[in-house]
Every structure is written in C-alpha cells, then in structure tokens.
Amino acid sequence: MSHFDRHSRVRDVVAAGSDAREVLLSHGYNLGEGFVDVLSQYQTLEEANREGRLRDVEGLLEALNNTYQK
Helix or strand or coil: residue 44? Predict the structure, then answer.
C-alpha cells in the first residue's frame, strides 16, 4: 500500500499501478512515449508542479491516495 505526498517521485507514481499514467495525464503531466527522460522520472510531484508540468497537485494526491489505498 502506497501513500503519496508532494515529495513522491514521478517514477514511484508510475510504478504504483496501471492507472497511474492516466491519473498523471488528467492532472497535466504527460509522460510521453516510453517515459525515457531519466531526470523527469526522479522529479518530485512538487517540482513538477512548480515547473508547470502538473496542475492541481492536491487533487492528484487525493486521486492517487484514494485509488491506491484500497
């Protein structure tokens, strides 16, 4: 069981389950094809939010934690 916060890394979110990509995309974070950018993989959700790659980080965290706490 995972708990996500602003310090969670993008790669940890992706590793959590098959729906994680869709949750990230619905909040503005596009992983692209194959997710090969190593620096982006290790970026925290807070960093992605600050850089404008992610919107509504609180909504994202709520969605992730509700989905993956079951």
Answer: strand
CA pair distance 17, 12, nearest whole angstrom: 9
Query: The whole model's pTM is what?
Result: 0.81
Q: How far apart are CA 38 and CA 59, in angstroms?
A: 25
For residues 54 and 30, give the distance between their C-alpha atoms in angstroms, rounded to a whole number: 9
Calpha distance 2→12 (Å, rounded): 9
pLDDT in tens, 36-51: 556 677 889 999 999 9
Residue 19 to residue 4: CA distance in whole angstroms: 14
- Pull the structure tokens for residue 69: 């706490």
The single-letter code of the amino acid at 34 is G
Share of the chain above pLDDT 70, in %: 84
Token readout for 2 is 């995972």
